[in-house]
Predict the 3D structure of the following.
Amino acid sequence: ERIDISLLVGNIINEVSLELEEKQITVVNSLKKSIQIKGNYSLLYSIFRNLMDNAIAYAGTNIQININCFREDENYYYFSVADTGIGVSPEHLNRLFERFYRVDKGRSRKLGGTGLGLAIVKNAVIIHGGSISAKNNQGGGLEFVFTLAKEK
Ligand code: ATP
Ligand code: MG
């Protein structure tokens, strides 16, 4: 199916709008119209939904979430989903995508996740021909950069 990523992300923002308001989180969605990918809607949805849910759950209050498609070439779109929250300490960065890996067991147990979200994200990215990495931004906050093939 041909998926419009701008619409998909717009839908997610609407779905989480109450939580955004409660936590005073601002989403800056810089996706332009017509980012079209031939792929699977529910997998593509799970990528953006998990990243958004995580930022809402872990990054803190009074933060910003920035969603951007910063590059396009013949075969790929390049995305970033970044928040201005607390980030994670550097030793965790490369393990975030492991199944059941959670950074702060005590803190995050109350938040009730299983640690599968980012493993699902990574799989969905790979299925769409891309790759994903995480880094902490200078100003603080976690940034995910990933590619998605226009046609898988
Ligand atoms: P699930 O997604 O299965 O409900 P989870 O959210 O704990 O559980 P992941 O989505 O894989 O699992 O995330 C792994 C861990 O990475 C989280 O437990 C959290 O500690 C950390 N994390 C993820 N995103 C952020 C973020 N934006 N800011 C700070 N920490 C984060
Ligand atoms: Mg999660």
Remarks:
- The chain is about 35% helix and 25% strand.
- The CA atoms of residues 51 and 81 lie 7 Å apart.
